[in-house]
Amino acid sequence: MIAEIGQIALILALLIAIVQSVLPMWGAYKGDARLMALGDRAATMQCILLAISFVALTIVFVQSDFSVKLVTVNSHTDKPLLYKISGVWGNHEGSMLLWVFILGIYGALVPVFGKGLPAGLKARALAVQGMISVGFLGFILFTSNPFLRLNPVPVNGQGLNPLLQDPGLAFHPPFLYLGYVGFSMAFSFSVAALIEGRVDAVWARWLRPWVLLAWAFLTVGITMGSIWAYYELGWGGWWMWDPVENVSFLPWLVGTALLHSILVLGKRHAMANWTILLGITAFSLSLVGTFVVRSGVLTSVHSFAVDPARGVYILALLLLATGGGLVMFALRAHTLRGGPSFTIVSKEGGLLLNNLLLVTSTFTVFLGTFYPLLIEAFTDGKISVGEPYFDRTFAPVMIVLIAIMGVGPLVKWREDSWKSLKPHLFKSFVLVAIIFSLTWWLGKSVLGALSIGIAVYLAYSTLAAFGRKIKFGQAGAMTLLKAQPASVWGFLIAHMGIAICVIGITGMSVWAKEDAKVLRLHESMTVGGYEFTLKSMTPGAERNFQKMVAAVEVQKSGHIVGTLRSARRFYQVRNMITTEAGIQVRPMRNLYAGVGEGDAEKGWVVRAYVHPLVNWIWLGALMIALAGFISILDRGRKRGKI
Amino acid sequence: MRVILTIFVTLIISLFMVFPALAQTPSEAEIELRAKEVGQALRCVVCQNQPIEESDASLAQDMRKLVRARIRNGDSNEEVIAFMRDRYGDFVLLKPPMQANTYLLWFAPAVLLGFFLFWYVVRVRRKPANIETQTLTDDELKRFNELSNNQEMQGSERQGQKIQGQKIQGHDT
Question: What is the pLDDT of residues A17-49, one digit of tens each?
């Protein structure tokens, strides 16, 4: 019964989405206020129906109603409640429903926050949102219906992929989707603005919080994925340039460019065309992200759906959205007015350069991700593109970007001179030289020293720019400090976050130590000055898995530093084994142990790692996300007044 | 310094010539070190972008053994990699080889960056000449700048932006 309610709500949502995608657009064309206003109501209605449908699916999962095929394939009565709920989106059909539900929420928020928007713009944007909805709802209903029944009803389900039974991964997809789908706002409003032939500061200021929101959610999602990979996959990697990771990184990079260019548009009325193009691209890449994971076109640990028919549908959807958006851009971009001019050394110039570098890095990651596919599709060859490629192509662009991040915030809008930057550059150079020499001496790595030096330069420059804003050291600095708008705090926290992240990445890439050995009980191995001893192997069982817990004691120069507990879990339902790493988390370094196959006689494979500064990576990333959320507050106060 | 280096190098070379066996059988620790280095560059061919050193797959274990065996045999790191490439194809290399079908992969980012930078310098430098096409009148511009400066100085962002926003909107319509 509940499944049928969900099914009906889903079909109604599709019908309403069709209305939403046609009538408001027609109304805006004809100047009919009633038809335009219909968009608001359709968006709200659609959101309610999708909520009903999503809740219905959640209920059948919680109730373990095995007459629904999806529940049978992805759930089990023994699963903890959290994973029954996360099981809703831990599969293809359910995750698509979550995707379109989030789209519905964003759509319904347009009438709530957009009361002051020009009616034509709002109606057209909602119509475009409606078209995206039609595409995805059609996809769900015709190729991946989550509510299909099963007859006869099995006694129990097949369980959720054990790798996904983890709090980190339970909430990874919703955050990722809040990010991906959030960029649909940028897309819809860009296309609507192209149809209207008008982009102005009001448009940019209204859209910026949505871009920030999507971007901040995406940052959280990517960070969660990275943390999960670190402790769950059991070999201590935090980013492996896996295609599935890369495709979530692509919209993030473009989103970063977008939120900087939309800033220029809002403040200076420049870079209008460029902002529109980025808005379309950010969402297209979000669709690519969805497409790649869902179609299984790039096989990877993350792809749990492999079905080419669906792949073709999403590919068509992707081409239609991207192609449509870009054709609109090509036809209409000339109608948008350019803004006031600026010179090479100016804040606009710096931000434009930031955009160009981010687009270059996006292109590089895109190429590295899809090149093996192209080679395989069009030639006999088969190649791999791994970390060494990205180290050589992506990293240099990032270094240039950070160099510009240091000076960009210090220059004035419109026109400035190199001369005014000289004192800062000189001080930075001295500081970097000192840090470089110290790190080189202590860490014995030129690359590491260089990288830490760059990070310190960024942190120093960011603080200098912030100090200049509040006139640090002069009378009234405290008053100015309190009066700074949220976006300035956002800038400070985000750029410091990048500096901290770079330090973490450097520590992990340059100074991490690791080893793997077969150890019997009470045998030990030494990694990076730490002695890891396998103390005990204890069997145990939980509700839905059996486990073998290894206690690894770590000593440094005779003193016990701690005991790491790593477990091998065996999930009977899926006949799968996963490794839980044992990690001691400290600000300056993590100790990490993972136990592998083996037995008492021969010993067990033990992997031991010393990871300096690794937590700084995620601390930095979370600061970046936090900065995004903080910057939104800036707009929240003024939203009603546009 | 040079002299010392020359003597040192000569000494090592002569050492290897006198004891060829010594040169060919490196110590276990050295094998391990080199194998790790080589293993980081080789992909476990059944895994997703994972180096053989980091993978638990059984094929990765075999590949690790193979690498160690080749090093023990006296292969240089490059020879081991060449051997693995011969056996498993280009697919095994995590760093794609520089060859006809990968020129695009390796050079396109640099070309794009070069193009962007060229465009940036040309486009932005040309711009000050177009300053007449400024859409705001001088008075408006003056007030606009005043407002945006005020806003930064006094931190009264809220009000400043509001007025600025209205201004632009008013101008458009």
Answer: 999 999 999 999 998 888 999 999 999 999 999
pLDDT of residue B151 exceeding 90, the answer is no
CB contact (8 A) between residue B54 and residue A364 = no
Q: What is the spatial distance between Cα A535 and Cα A522, in angstroms, rounded to a whole number? A: 5
pTM: 0.87
Q: Which of B96, B106, B116 sits opposite A360 (nearest CB)?
A: B116
pLDDT over 70 (residue A273): yes
Q: Do A360 and B113 touch (CB under 8 A)?
A: yes
Residue pLDDT, tens place only, A485-523? 888 999 999 999 999 999 999 999 999 998 888 899 999
A343: left (phi over 0), alpha (psi -120 to 50) or beta: beta
| Other CB atoms within 10 A of residue A363 CB | 19
Per-residue three-class SS string for A269-294? CCCHHHHHHHHHHHHHHHHHHHHHHH
Measured between CB atoms, which of A200, A343, A484 is closest to B128? A343
Cis peptide before A152 (omega within 30 of 0): yes
User: Burial, A419: exposed, middle or buried (Cβ in 10 Å; 0-12, 13-18, 19+)?
Assistant: exposed
Q: Residue A493, Cβ neighbours under 10 Å: how many? A: 19
> Does residue A301 sit at the B interface (CB-CB below 8 Å)?
yes
Q: What is the mean pLDDT of residues A95-120?
A: 93
Closest residue by Cα to residue A397 from B84, B108, B56, B83: B108
Identify the closest residue of chain A to B128 by CA–CA distance: A341
pLDDT of residue A421: 85
DSSP one-letter string for A512-558: -EEEEEEE-TT-EEEETTEEEEEEEEEEEE-SS-EEEEEEEEEEETT
DSSP state string for A103-154: HHHHHHHHHHH-TTS-HHHHHHHHHHHHHHHHHHHHHHHHH--TT-B-SSPP
Q: pLDDT tens digit string along A117-170?
A: 899 999 999 999 999 999 999 999 998 899 999 888 888 888 777 777 888 778
Closest by Cβ to A384, choosing from B91, B161, B165: B91
Structurally, at CATH architecture level, domain B2-92 sits in Orthogonal Bundle (1.10)
pLDDT value of residue B140:
66
Instruction: Report chain A residues whose CB lies below 8 A from the CB of B116.
Output: 356-357, 359-360
What are the pLDDT digits (tens) for A200-252? 888 998 999 999 999 999 999 999 999 988 888 767 788 988 888 899 999 99
Of the ranges A307-321, B12-26, B117-131, which is most confident? Answer: A307-321
Q: Does A382 touch chain B (CB under 8 A)?
A: yes
Give the closest residue to A573 by CA, choosing from A539, A550, A537, A543: A543
SS (H, E, C) A400-458: HHHHHHHHHHHCCCCCCCHHHHHHHHHHHHHHHHHHHHHHHHHHCCHHHHHHHHHHHHH
All structural domains of chain A with their residue ranges: 1-157, 166-338+350-365, 387-509+617-623, 513-612
DSSP one-letter code for A591: E
Mutate to test the interface with B, among A196, A242, A304, A360 (most CBs of B within 10 A): A360
pLDDT for the residue A293: 75
Residue of A nearest to B93 (CA): A384
- Measured between beta carbons, the chain B residues lying within 8 angstroms of A353 are 120
